[in-house]
Amino acid sequence: MTQTETNPATLRATQSDLLPQVHLPRNAGMELDLDWVARVQANTSAIERRAATLPGRRSVKKAYQAAWLAKAVTLIDLTTLSGDDTPGRVRRLCAKARHPVRADILDALGLPAITTGAVCVYHEMVETAVEALHGTGIPVAAVSTGFPAGLSPFHLRVKEIEESVAAGAAEIDIVISRRHVLTGNWQALYDEMRTFRAACGEAHVKAILATGELGTLRNVARASLICMMAGADFIKTSTGKETVNATLPVSLTMIRAIRAYEARTGFKVGYKPAGGISKAKDSLVYLSLMKEELGNRWLQPDLFRFGASSLLGDIERQLEHHVTGQYSAGYRHPMG
Known about the structure:
Blueprint: H1 8-13, H2 34-39, H3 44-57, H4 62-73, E1 76-79, H5 87-98, H6 103-109, E2 118-121, H7 126-132, E3 140-143, H8 154-166, E4 171-175, H9 178-182, H10 186-200, E5 204-208, H11 217-229, E6 234-236, H12 248-265, E7 270-272, H13 280-293, E8 306-308, H14 310-324
Parallel strand pairs: 1-2, 1-8, 2-3, 3-4, 4-5, 5-6, 6-7
Helix pairs in contact: 3-12, 4-13, 4-14, 8-10, 10-11, 11-12, 12-13
């Protein structure tokens, strides 16, 4: 018996959003346009005012909230990036990615089986993750290019990408050289990103800007644009290792850069906030931001991801509360 009334029609209405979408053309990039970059500005006070309105103005309740939270699960890059990662831990994480929400909860909600958007690991664990996810269609993403600092020798960073792709990674999360942004060396950033994109081959590349280390929102906007010009399939806020990671002002800045790039080139580029997003209510705010600024098409895993791990546990806990009316202990929703 559920305490919270569930409307199956409302939940089923979102099931079409969980289905695969029409394949989009990959961002081919464009020639570096320094005039466009120079014109890019960021009105920090206006961006912060707009971002501050989002948590209070956008709220979904009951069955609608459960449906949005189920959608958020399908957009998570379930991640482990610890120095003590082991094959066993990665295999358990992959098992969670295959079945991120307990079957009894999904049955009570009237929802089909779902998976996370991807599993993200260090290069050393790529083969283990690929083997564990074989046949599921869940891609493996590898962090690369001297993650998280990006300060290893350039040829080694490129080689690391190639090795991860050869090991089976379908997505590569690269880190840019922050010094290129801080010194305004846009040509160097563009050339670096083009080289990384070429090394990825068919694997999609997510450019991590490490926005907490870029100084200003204008730098964030310009770095976003440069990476898209150079062919990034996604732009991503953070490594998760910086002091400041994903924030709503940074997200709004990057999302509007994506919108401007699509308006000029016709290419849709994905967005991935990472670091510090651990609560279910936060995922709802980000989803509403994407819907309002870019539209429903950006609510699919080929264009939007959360870089997170603990977020999934809180979402599953909220879904169980929707079903039972009671909050369960965290151990009922283990990561592996």
